[in-house]
Structure to design on (188 residues):
C-alpha cells in the first residue's frame, strides 16, 4: 500500500492487483474551509482503476457506500468520450447489473458513438479487461472487504429505481414539488 496526500485535504491509499488498482479516497475539509451549499465537504470512496495497455480506454468503478458507479472513457489527443452506468452490485450480492459484466458492456457500447475508438478496438479492450478477470476478481473482492469495514453496512447498494407507474392523460401532468431542489434518488 502506498499513501499520498493530494490537494484540499484528500488522502488516497493505492493498492495494485495486477493491472487493476484500488484507491481509497478520504476527504476531510481543511480547517476554516467554507462549506458549499448542497455539496458534501467530507467523503470516503473506494475506486477500482484500469487502463488499457495503449492508454486509450480507462475504467473507474466507484463505491461511496450507497451506490456503485462505473465510468468508461476513451481519450486520444483532444478527443474524449465517456459512458457510465450506476446502480451496480458486487458479484453475487443482489444479482442486478454486476460490475464486471457492466464494464464489458460499457466498453463495447462506447465505440458505437465515439470516434476515438473503432468497434473492433473496443472489442479488443473489452476482451483485455476480461483476460484480466482473475485480477479483477481479486480487486473486486478486496474492494468488497474494504467496503464492509469502511461503510459498516451490508454490501447491497441502491438498486436501479423502479419505473414510474404509467399515467394517463386524464391524470394531467406530473407535479414534482421543488422545495429543496429535485428529489434525491430513492433506494429500495
Amino acid at each position: 500500500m502506498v499513501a499520498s496526500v493530494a490537494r484540499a485535504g484528500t488522502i488516497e491509499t493505492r493498492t495494485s492487483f495486477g493491472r487493476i488498482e484500488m484507491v481509497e479516497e478520504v476527504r476531510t475539509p481543511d480547517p476554516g474551509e467554507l462549506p458549499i451549499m448542497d455539496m458534501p465537504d467530507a467523503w470516503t470512496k473506494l475506486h477500482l482503476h484500469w487502463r488499457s495497455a495503449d492508454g486509450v480506454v480507462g475504467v473507474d468503478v466507484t463505491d461511496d457506500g450507497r451506490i456503485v458507479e462505473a465510468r468508461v472513457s476513451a481519450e486520444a489527443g483532444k478527443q474524449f468520450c465517456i459512458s457510465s452506468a450506476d446502480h451496480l452490485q458486487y458479484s453475487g450480492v443482489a444479482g442486478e447489473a454486476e460490475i464486471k459484466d457492466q464494464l464489458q458492456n460499457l466498453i463495447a457500447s462506447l465505440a458505437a458513438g465515439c470516434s476515438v475508438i473503432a468497434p473492433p478496438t473496443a472489442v479488443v479492450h473489452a476482451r483485455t479487461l476480461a483476460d484480466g478477470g482473475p485480477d479483477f476478481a481479486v480487486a473486486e473482492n478486496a474492494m468488497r472487504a474494504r467496503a464492509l469495514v469502511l461503510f459498516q453496512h451490508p454490501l447491497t447498494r441502491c438498486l436501479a429505481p423502479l419505473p414510474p407507474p404509467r399515467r394517463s392523460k386524464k391524470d394531467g401532468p406530473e407535479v414534482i414539488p421543488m422545495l429543496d431542489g429535485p428529489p434525491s434518488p430513492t433506494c429500495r
